Amino acid sequence: xxxxxxxxxxxxxxxxxxxxxxxxxxxxxxxxxxxxxxxxxxxxxxxxxxxxxxxxxxxxxxxxxxxxxxxxxxxxxxxxxxxxxxxxxxxxxxxxxxxxxxxxxxxxxxxxxxxxxxxxxxxxxxxxxxxxxxxxxxxxxxxxxxxxxxxxxxxxxxxxxxxxxxxxxxxxxxxxxxxxxxxxxxxxxxxxxxxxxxxxxxxxxxxxxxxxxxxxxxxxxxxxxxxxxxxxxxxxxxxxxxxxxxxxxxxxxxxxxxxxxxxxxxxxxxxxxxxxxxxxxxxxxxxxxxxxxxxxx
Length: 297
Description:
CATH architecture of the largest domain: 3-Layer(aba) Sandwich
Order of helices and strands: EEEHEEEHEHEHHHHEHEH
Number of domains: 2
């Protein structure tokens, strides 16, 4: 029998965000690195999906994975309070997170890194973590906190919703979600026969409608101006998976949108052929290209 046990050395870290939410993370690599890459995971993932993130570690680079409030499907996260109990719980996870609160999550990790004595920081978003990374950096003065952004498989969730709407239920789901929000029930789940995954009304509207704040990579909407994306001036490195199963069009067409709309002072675009959304099997190739990019910006 083959022993598949593999111990991975890392530091367990506890993060407190500016709004006093508690998040858990893992620090891979040296405790005193030259730089830190903060890895922002996608929908329903967590700090423990580390294959791609770990590949970015080298002698000068540490990588932090952390469970942002969109981790897993439905979870409780805890906020410290001045009450007798000392905390309160909030429903989160893919089903209930509020997209714009990613700013608090990411700032909490950046503050942790600064307090650890490291001030050269990059964000690396994967999947919906790409939208979160760009949205964070689009905020006033946020780009002073980071040196650059790495986007791994950035896709439009709205375009994906259109692609997978085989039964044509998206318009009805949108109507129901909008009605729930109007009635003050933004965290009520959509009916299962309308949307099979558990998701509340506000989260659905954020992910699956064209005018949402989260629809940052708007290649499916030729007339929508990507104001948020165009605010990114710091170095930007984009990787697309050549066979991404969630993409609604060829990677080369999505690449054109990024090339035409980026305003970065140092932009790089790479298509990794022969891989799906998670870059499985090509993690080392991605890492080598990331480190080449880091050396030149």
